[in-house]
Amino acid sequence: MVIGLYFGLQLVFTNPPWHTNDEDRHFYNAWRFAHGQFKPTVENKKSGYMIPPKLYNQARSSQGIRFDEKTKINKNTFDVQKRVKYNARDAEYHKIPLINKLPVGFIPHIIGIKIGEVFKKNPLTVHWWARSFGLFTFLLIVFFAIKTIPVFKNVMMLVALAPMSLYQASSVTYDMLCNATTFLIIAYVVKWIYQENSISRKDLLLFFGAFLILIFSKSGYYVVPFLALMVPSQKFGFSYPKIKLILILVFITFIPDLTWQQYIKSLHLPGSGAFQNDFAFGLKKSIMYHLQDIPTLISNLALNVLSQGKDWIIGCIGRFGYSYIPLPNVWIFAYVIILFVIAAIDHNVDFKLTLSQRGISALIMLASVGALLAAFYFSFTPIGAKAIFGAQGRYFIPILPLILLQVIGTVSISGKKYLSLATVLISIVFLYQTISFLDETFYHAN
Amino acid sequence: MSKKRKHTNQPLKSNGNKKDPGRKSKAKSSLKKEEIWSFKNVSFNNFIPLLIALIFFSILWFRPLDIKITDPWYEGIALIDSANKVTEKELKNLLLDEAGEKLSEQVRKHPYHARVHYLYGYYWLQRQNWDSVIYHEREAIRIGAGGVVEQVEFKAQEMLNYAIGKKVNPLINSGNNEEALKVLEYATTKNMNNPEIDRSKGIIYLRKGDNDRALGCFLRYEKSQPNNVLNLTNIGLSYMRKNNLDSARFYINRAIKLDPNHNRAKQLNAQLNPQNQ
C-alpha cells in the first residue's frame, strides 16, 4: 500500500498529462459524467458532449508529442497551464467517441474531478485529482485482494505494482477498476480453494459484486470469474453450486446489455462518426468470413501470438502511453522471469491443486486469452486481415495472475521467510527505475 | 455455526492430502540422479508447468522462428515496391502481374475495404491504366471518407486528381470534349477537393459555347487558384462572350498585372480596349 501510494503518486505527476492511451477521451467522459451529462448532445447528426473549450484545448494540446530530444516537455509549462481556469457552464459541443461507455468505470475519477473543482477549475489540477482518486481506489481494492488471498500474496503484489499496472492505475481510465476487480476475483477463488470452511455469503456477495463492477467497467474478461469452478462443490454450502454459479455469472455478464446499453439504444443516437473508416470492421461479418476456413483462423491466431507475443509482453509490463515508449527490454525480461520464479515458489506446502483444478485453471486461462485475442481479431481487426489489430499488452494485465497461477506450487524450496522482503525490494527497485526512466524520457533536464 | 479460519502457516488438510514434511526430504535424498529427472518423480512432474511456461516465454521473447505476418493486401503492395526497385523490364512486369493478381483477389473478396481499393488503384497507376485508377480511387473515397484516424480519402484524392489529369488532358487537347466531360462528371467526388476538375470542365464548356457553365467552373477554380493567369483570362473571356465587359475587363486586368507578357491576356485586353491600340 505504502509502496503503491508513494510510487503511484509519483506516476500521477510524472506521467505527462493525458498521455496514457485514450486518457483524453476517458477524461472527457469522466468529466461529463461528473457534470451530469449522461445523455449525449447531438449536433450536425453526430453525438458528442458539451465540454468547456479551455479544458478541451488544454487536453488536446498535450497530444501528439513525440518525446524525442527536441520535443520533451519543460516542467515550467505546467506553471503556465495551472493558471488556466475554465467555467463549467461555458461549454461547447465536441464530437467525442465512446458515447456508450458506462459511468461505473469512472466513479473514482468522477469523485476526484468533483473534489478538484472545489479548489480550482483548472484542467491540469483537476486531471491530477482524477488520477489520484483512481490510484487510491486501485490500491484499496488491491490491498483487500492481497489481504484476502491466503497464498500467492507476493505474486499479487508484483502484478499489481508492475510498472504498467501501476501506470494504468494512476491514469484516468476504466482499466484501473477492471484490473483491480479481476485481481480481487482471483484472490477470492484462491481463498476458497485454500480454506476448509464453507464459503460465506459475504464472500459470495463480494465476489459477485466485484464481477458486477468489472463487467460494468470494461467488457472482455467475462471468463475470469468462471475460475470459481475450481472450488470443490462441497465448499459452497448449497445444492448444485456449479450450475447455479454458471447461471449467475452468465446473468451478470448480460446485465450491462440489458440496462445501460438499452438506455443508450433508446436514445436513437446518430453515433459520433466512424473512428476508422479505411477498412470495414464488424464482429458478425468477420466471424462469418473466418468460419469459412477454421484451420487458417487457428493458424493465424497462433502466428499472431508468435509474432506479436513479445510486443504484448512488453506492453503488459511497461510500455507507456500514446508515445508507446517501452522500458528497456532487459528490465522487462527480468521482471517476467522474477514473476514466474516467485509464482512457482510463492505457496504453502499444504496448498495443492489437483489435476482437475489445474486443468480448469489452465482452461479458463486459455479461454480468457483466447477470448481477448478473438475479440480483437473479430471486432477491431479489418475483415480478412491476418495481423490482429489493436491488441495491446496492457489488456493482458487482468489475466496475468491467472497465467502465473499455472505455475503455482511447482517449485518447493525452503527459506522463503525472506520472500516478502525480496518482493518489496524488487517492487521498489523496478518502480524507482520506472519513474526515473519516465522523467528522463518525457522531460527536459532542469 | 462455521468458524472463520485464520490464515496461518500451520498445515491444513487441503484437498484431503496430508503431508509429512520430514518424510518428503528423506524420500528425496534417496533418489538417484536419473530418478529425479524421470517422469515418475513427483517433484519433476511439478516442475513441468514452470518449464513449459519458461520455454514458451523464451520462444515469444527471443523469436527464434522470426515470424512476420503481413495482411494479404499489403503483400500485393510489397510486390509493387519490389517491382519499382527492379530495372529489368521482364522481372518488373512479372512482379507487377503477381501484385495485380493478389490485389484483384483482395478487391473481389473485400469490396467493402476502402484501403484495398486505394491500393489496387496504386497498382493501376503503375500500369498507367487511368480508367481503373479513377474507378478504384473513387471507390476508396466513397467507402472510406470521414474517419478520424487512418484517413484514406486524401491520398486517394491525390491519386485520383493525378489520374484525371492524365486521362482528361489528352482528350481535351485532341478535341474529344464529350468523352473528357464524361470522365470528369464520373470522377467528381462529393466534398472532396479537386479544383482541376472545375478547370477542365470550364475549358470544355467554353469550347462548347456554354458560357454560363464555363464561368461557374472557372470562378470555383479561381477560389483555390486566385493567381492562375490562364484561369483569370478564361473568366475574362467567358464574361466577354456574355457581353459583361466590365467584369471581363476586371479579370483581364488582374491577369495582366500578374503576368504583363501573357499573350492571351494581352490579346483579350486589346479586344476589350481597342482605343488603347
Task: Please give a structural write-up.
The complex is a heterodimer of chains A (446) and B (277). Chain A is mostly helical and 446 residues long. Chain A has one domain. Chain A has 18 helices and five strands. In chain A, the strands form two sheets. A three-stranded antiparallel β-sheet of chain A has the order 1-2-3. In chain A, a hairpin with a 4-residue loop joins strand 4 and strand 5. Among the domains of chain B are: 107 residues, Alpha Horseshoe (Serine Threonine Protein Phosphatase 5, Tetratricopeptide repeat), CATH 1.25.40.10; 84 residues, Serine Threonine Protein Phosphatase 5, Tetratricopeptide repeat. Chain B has 14 helices and no strands. The N terminus of chain B is likely disordered. The chains are: A mainly alpha (446), B mainly alpha (277). Chains A and B meet through helix 14 and helix 15 of A and helix 3 and helix 6 of B.
Core attributes:
heterodimer; A: 446 residues; mainly alpha; three-stranded antiparallel sheet; two-stranded antiparallel sheet; 18 helices; 5 strands; 59% helix; 4% strand; globular; B: 277 residues; Serine Threonine Protein Phosphatase 5, Tetratricopeptide repeat; 14 helices
